[in-house]
Amino acid sequence: MSVEAPIPPAEVDLATVDLSDRDWWVRPPAERHAALDRLRAERPFAFFAEPEIPGIPAGPGYHAVTRYADLEAISSQPAVFCSGRGAVSMQDVPAELHEFYGSLISMDDPRHAKIRRIVSKTFTPRMLERTLDSVRTVVDDVLARARATAEANDGAIDVVADLAAPIPLRVICDMMGVPEADRPGVLANSTIILSGGDPELIENDDPFTAFLTAGMEMAALMERLAGERLADPRDDLTTALVRSEVDGERLSHQEIASFFILLLVAGNETTRNAISQGLLTLSEWPQERARWAADPSLDRTGVEEVVRWVSPVTWMRRTATQDGEIGGHRFTAGEKFLLFYNAANRDPAVFADPQRFDVGRDPNPHVGFGSRGPHFCLGAHLARRELQVTFRAVFEQLPDLEVTGPPRRLASSFVNGLKRLPARLGGTR
Amino acid sequence: MRVTADRELCVGSGACEMLAPDVFEVDDDGTVHVLQDEPDDPDPVRQAAQQCPTRALSVEE
Ligand code: SF4
């Protein structure tokens, strides 16, 4: 059953488009992409005002980068377009705050590279080869539980809660050594940290407090685990973090806590949304689903196409450190650029027939994991592995999965998320 | 063909390792190590040099 038309509407009025407005981002993807297409074609560095957050003065605004070539040029010149003034918020939040929540993402080299290297080995293809069996075990178990949930509920499941959320949560918590009992808290807090302030996910409509509380709870968990690992080292990422040194110094508690939060939050939210939105997309493109399900040799290209199509992280920010010119746009030091990965991923200058979801697309140089430059997604190989195992297992073990209702979309410009996706197992009755 | 890596630029993304596992390995220090300076199969190595996100790999033909 098709729940959303995959064909974009022909006309969209750019005067009604405000990329800073979180409510704009719950509109159907086809409508959003129609607007991004026009921005890319007509106003490739369109300027938008920053939204107000209580307590933080709105800054000067930002340019929305929507062409693939411009995005790549900015991303690959980190000295000219830095991350250290904030990469995950439109506003210039106080430095402690953006480092705490952004960690590596909001740092520049050389410190960024030094800290990243502490864990980069863990995420290489070679190392992840060893985790393949455990990823399979997690996926099989989650799918079996989803089947049981459906049987107890007249066939009904929620793709987000029953499939998409538990898989990356368990994988990353296993890697970090987070105990079972703490995992529900990790899921709840990482959801709040990347909620974009969506009122449905925030108690008392006070995003700032909710956000700080979630960060503090994660930091408290880290403190506890860090203490345990120092006394009793194990073969996990948390041990690597607490024992590592950069330039002969241990990382500070705050640096460890923020790195820990980054790994947990990024490891959870992005893969969760790639799974849920990928399954939604496959329900909208039944022929592509049938083609992929029948042919495991498409697992690699199918997953890349899901990441291109969904672009789980919508943007990252860069800030100009000097005056210059890019793609015909003159800029001055301090100017902000938001790199819209979802727009670049449908740029007709790079992708043939970009509005077609094609599980065999090859080559597929998408920027769903980021573009060129030092901030390329640390978890890309892990995410690919989880997604390849998950989609194959769904085809084999849940061939009767059927999306039954419209999704509830996250009201956030930053993460392309789903809060709920109703489905059923057991076919039509 | 000769391949060299600039370990200052490398962030250990592992993209090269995925394309040419016999030639590249990310070490325990989190940066790339070239296992074969003069690789037998040049194609994946060229691809790796092209796809490295930080352009840390250089190839001399
Ligand atoms: S692709 Fe580049 S950055 Fe990644 S590990 Fe290889 S040399 Fe390093």
TrEMBL record, chain A:
Coiled coil: none annotated. GO terms for biological process: cholesterol catabolic process. Transmembrane segments: none annotated. Keywords: Heme, Iron, Metal-binding, Monooxygenase, Oxidoreductase. SUPFAM superfamilies: Cytochrome P450. GO terms for molecular function: cholest-4-en-3-one 26-monooxygenase activity; heme binding; iron ion binding; steroid hydroxylase activity. Gene3D superfamilies: Cytochrome P450 (1.10.630.10). Belongs to the cytochrome P450 family. PANTHER family: BIOTIN BIOSYNTHESIS CYTOCHROME P450, P450, PUTATIVE (EUROFUNG)-RELATED. This is Cytochrome P450. It comes from Geodermatophilus normandii. The lineage of its organism: Bacteria, Bacillati, Actinomycetota, Actinomycetes, Geodermatophilales.
TrEMBL record, chain B:
Gene3D superfamilies: 3.30.70.20. InterPro entries: 3Fe4S_ferredoxin, 4Fe4S_Fe-S-bd, Fe-S_cluster_ET. Residues 34-61 are annotated as: Disordered. GO terms for molecular function: 3 iron, 4 sulfur cluster binding; electron transfer activity; iron ion binding. Keywords: 3Fe-4S, Electron transport, Iron, Iron-sulfur, Metal-binding, Transport. It comes from the Bacteria. Residues 1-29 form the 4Fe-4S ferredoxin-type domain. Its cofactor is [3Fe-4S] cluster. SUPFAM superfamilies: 4Fe-4S ferredoxins. Coiled coil: none annotated. Ferredoxins are iron-sulfur proteins that transfer electrons in a wide variety of metabolic reactions. PANTHER family: FERREDOXIN (PTHR36923). This is Ferredoxin. It comes from Geodermatophilus normandii.
